[in-house]
Design goal:
With about 150 residues, this protein is mainly beta. The protein has one domain: Jelly Rolls, CATH 2.60.120. The protein is globular and about 40 Å long.
Length: about 150
């Protein structure tokens, strides 16, 4: 009987650029101020707020709603766990969404108005090129408050 293959130990800190990154090393914190409260985020690689490529994971709590918004860069999303209901347009319409479950991937081109909600919560991985910004169609939906004049 062959011996079981040994697994590489999980490092205590994220490895250097070019190496693998283990989920156990992710540092989870509050999501960015541009997203509604309750979102958790871990920066896997790079930083969405700075120039250059990035990978981040987001955890949406049950009942999460992300109002219609646009980004200045393409948004690439992979659902890792849970369910996300995703729609396009400038009005939140929960009846006009596509159901994305674990394994689903979506690309939303820069400047495309879209929205989402997650009745039971979800974990997503997003990647793209920063700086990655969020502009809400209705400024009143922006959790950062009214824009400065």
């Amino acid at each position: 009987m062959a011996a079981a293959a040994a697994q590489a130990p999980v490092p205590a800190a994220p490895p250097a650029k070019g190496d693998a990154v283990w989920e156990a090393t992710f540092v989870w914190g509050d999501g960015p101020a541009a997203l509604p409260k309750g979102v958790r985020m871990a920066k896997v690689s790079g930083d969405p707020e700075k120039p250059g490529p990035f990978v981040a994971r987001l955890k949406f709590p049950p009942g999460f709603v992300l109002p219609p918004h646009v980004h200045t860069a393409d948004e690439n999303v992979t659902v890792l766990a849970g369910t996300v209901m995703s729609g396009r347009g400038e009005k939140l319409d929960k009846t006009a969404t596509r159901t994305l479950t674990a394994g689903a991937y979506g690309l939303t081109p820069a400047g495309t108005a879209h929205f989402s909600h997650s009745p039971d919560g979800a974990t997503l991985q997003i990647h793209g090129v920063g700086p990655f910004t969020v502009r809400y169609i209705d400024p009143g939906d922006d959790p950062r408050g009214a824009p400065a004049n």
